[in-house]
């Protein structure tokens, strides 16, 4: 157990073999955090302190790009939301749940995902000696170096002021893919 000293978005866990899932802890404005979960072309962003979540299913988007928020009726990802808890999972044994009352989120991986993931949550291979692996495959015992190695964005202390402009449906798609702090395409 360690304190996350970074105020940047960091990769918690990613399947680097099959790309079955990605979990990122995003640092939002005003010291608020969100959890970005990607599975089966579906993205859910969970805001534990606000007790809300947003879902996007990129496989349902049509050429006109009119709708971003989609129901998960035809998705291979399941979602359950209770009064104080949300859980998302897929048929391949990946589950992410957040308990809003306790501000606690968990990531659970079935045995099928043994040893295929890496990130701040470790390598998931039951080997204590390689939990502090950095992206280049080397190891560290320094918490700050370990945390910084898994950052997914560049952090700056000064926020840039952007000129607001009207957003069309296509601009909104571009924003999700290229401007959102959690986007892997940013």
Question: In terms of topology, how is this protein built?
Answer:
Blueprint: E1 10-15, E2 21-27, E3 33-39, E4 42-47, E5 52-57, E6 77-81, E7 85-90, E8 94-99, E9 104-109, E10 117-118, H1 143-149, H2 169-179
Antiparallel strand pairs: 1-2, 1-10, 2-3, 3-4, 4-5, 6-7, 7-8, 8-9
Task: Name the descriptors.
186 residues; mainly beta; 4-stranded antiparallel β-sheet; 10% helix; 31% strand
Summarize the structure.
The protein has 186 residues and is mainly beta. It has helices at residues 143-149, 169-179, and strands spanning 10-15, 21-27, 33-39, 42-47, 52-57, 77-81, 85-90, 94-99, 104-109, 117-118.
Helix content: under 10%
Q: How are strands sequenced across the largest beta sheet?
A: 5-4-3-2-1-10
Rg, alpha carbons: 17 Å
Mean pLDDT: 75
Strand content: 25-35%
Q: How many helices?
A: 2
Form type: globular
Strands, total number = 10
Give the biggest sheet: 6 strands, antiparallel
Total discrete domains = 1
C-alpha end-to-end distance: 30 Å
Low-confidence runs: 61-76, 156-163
Element-by-element helix/strand order: EEEEEEEEEEHH
Structural class: mainly beta
